[in-house]
Specification:
The protein has about 475 residues and is α/β, with parallel strands linked by helices. It folds into two domains: about 230 residues; about 230 residues, Carbon-nitrogen hydrolase (Nitrilase/N-carbamoyl-D-aminoacid amidohydrolase, 4-Layer Sandwich), CATH 3.60.110.10. Helices cover about 50% and strands about 20% of the residues. The protein has 18 helices and 13 strands. Strands 1, 2, 3, 4, 5, 6 and 13 form a seven-stranded mixed beta sheet that branches. It has a six-stranded mixed beta sheet with strand order 7-8-9-10-11-12, covered by helices on one side. Helix 4 packs across helix 6. The protein is elongated, with a radius of gyration of 24 Å.
């Protein structure tokens, strides 16, 4: 037992550090491929209770890399933050226990597969139950690694998580000559997936090109104007002035941030309609719409069209507790253009696979997304939306306050990007393809998550049957 405890400490500390730096607001993506390796190596030789303890403590402690964001930035209650950290340790704990148990029973292949199967199952169930959707998935550590990101077009985020954890399990099996063939098979699957991603990135993209403009201001007086009337009118007029300058550069649509000010009645946003009428350029702007008749509040994005009524989209996924008083929307907003179909979503909607997948199913080639981030999460939260573009086959234009102005294509390539604090009114002009591609993920949905659930069930059945036989 003493020798096991000596091995437990380095396994725990190494996984803690790997998880710490491969998670958080600025993950180091290469580390995510081996983050689970030390605890799985330990689980291959340790009793179940000890490997479970090491895996849980390592992942739980490593999750505190998010402490400053959870508690300091979004003011999450400490017990809630600790509960989330503990839940995040569930997948590695179960994976370690099942990995060791199956190895001891001579089922090396199933042991290797059960690790990613557990991880994907836990992430998928969490995404269905959580108000934060897929946020927190291991897959988001790979947003900068484009070959791996292409798996989202086949499997959604679940296939990327599977590859990451499969790699760690396969590398552990490389140590023993008895399990090396299984390990090679697992690593070959990873290599094939990355080869697919490389080939997909090399394929030429067609479609019409659209010149887009993005504007955002982090000036204190422009951050969430909650007084309707003159304060809102002043803000809208200032943004319309900046938008006019971009219109003179030939942009076809301009995207402004989320929830800029309060509107109560028709005409409160007249500056934006006047802009569209005078320039012939579409404009998307986010605002808080209060229905004075019912008292309901909507986080709304309005799409202004020249000489036509504005189209409205109400945010479907609201951020608790900040947006708990708001009424969620349920409808898509689509605009048919000669260059393709455009859709509108808002910020946190992109933490979920839908409504992005619904826009993809409708054939959208360009998604316009007003947003509002918290500065410290500008990269992490802002780039989650890029995976939705890869999954559902559209280009993305996302404008955030306290974050990035981002233009990306349906391969996840960032075409242009700027920070909202780079100027009093930060702006960006870029050309992006407006082209829809129907992906396997769009056709089959979360098929890969269900496949992982079946693999996990098979592994559990094997263990139970073997235990009865013993």
């Amino acid at each position: 037992m003493a020798s096991m405890l000596k091995k437990a400490v380095p396994a725990l500390l190494t996984t803690l550090l790997l998880h710490w730096f491969s998670d958080g607001m600025h993950p180091l993506w290469p580390l995510a491929w081996i983050a689970a390796l030390p605890v799985l190596w330990f689980a291959a030789q340790a009793p179940a209770w000890l490997s479970a303890g090491v895996a849980f403590l390592a992942w739980f402690a490593g999750s505190f890399t998010l402490w400053g964001y959870f508690v300091g930035t979004i003011h999450m209650p400490i017990p809630v933050a600790c509960g989330i950290f503990a839940f995040s340790a569930l997948a590695p704990t179960l994976a370690a226990v099942l990995f060791g148990a199956l190895l001891r029973r001579g089922a090396a292949g199933l042991a290797m597969l059960v690790v990613p199967a557990v991880w994907v199952t836990v992430e998928y169930v969490y995404s269905l139950l959580s108000p934060h959707g897929t946020n927190g998935s291991l897959s988001y550590s790979q947003l900068d690694f484009l070959p791996a990101l292409q798996m989202a077009s086949l499997t959604g985020p679940w296939g990327i998580t599977f590859l990451l954890t499969l790699t760690s399990a396969a590398l552990v099996l490389c140590v023993s000559s008895r399990t090396r063939r299984v390990a090679v098979a697992g690593l070959a699957v990873v290599a094939l997936a990355l080869a697919f991603g490389t080939v997909r990135l090399s394929r030429p993209q067609g479609g019409e090109m659209v010149k887009v403009g993005l504007i955002s201001s982090d000036l204190k007086e422009n951050m969430g104007v909650q007084d309707p009337g003159e304060p809102a009118a002043r803000l809208f007029t200032d943004y319309a002035r900046e938008a006019t300058a971009l219109a003179q550069q030939g942009v076809q649509v301009i995207v402004l941030p989320e929830n800029m000010a309060v509107v109560l009645k028709p005409g409160d946003d007249q500056a934006f309609q006047d802009f569209a009428d005078n320039t012939g350029v579409e404009l998307v702007a986010g605002m808080l719409h209060v229905d004075t008749g019912t008292g309901r509040k909507y986080n709304e994005a309005r799409l202004y069209r020249p000489h036509e009524p504005a189209l409205a989209y109400d945010k479907q996924h609201l951020l608790p507790p900040f947006e708990s008083p708001f009424t969620p929307g349920a409808q898509l907003t689509l605009l048919k253009k000669s260059v393709g179909l455009w859709g509108v979503a808002i910020c946190k909607d992109m933490d979920f696979t839908a409504p992005a997948s619904l826009y993809g199913a409708a054939g959208a080639g360009l998604l316009l997304v007003p947003a509002w981030d918290f500065t410290s999460d500008a990269w992490q939260h802002g780039h989650i939306a890029i995976m939705r573009a890869v999954e559902s086959g559209f280009s993305l234009v996302r404008t955030a306050r306290g974050g990035f102005l981002t233009v990306a294509d349906d391969r996840g390539r960032v075409i242009a990007e700027a920070t909202s604090w780079s100027a009093p009114y930060a702006s960006l002009v870029a050309t992006v393809p407006s082209r829809h591609e129907t992906t396997l993920y769009l056709r089959l949905g979360d098929w890969f998550a269900w496949l992982s659930i079946v693999l996990l069930a098979a592994a559990l059945a094997r263990l139970l049957l073997r235990r009865r036989a013993d």
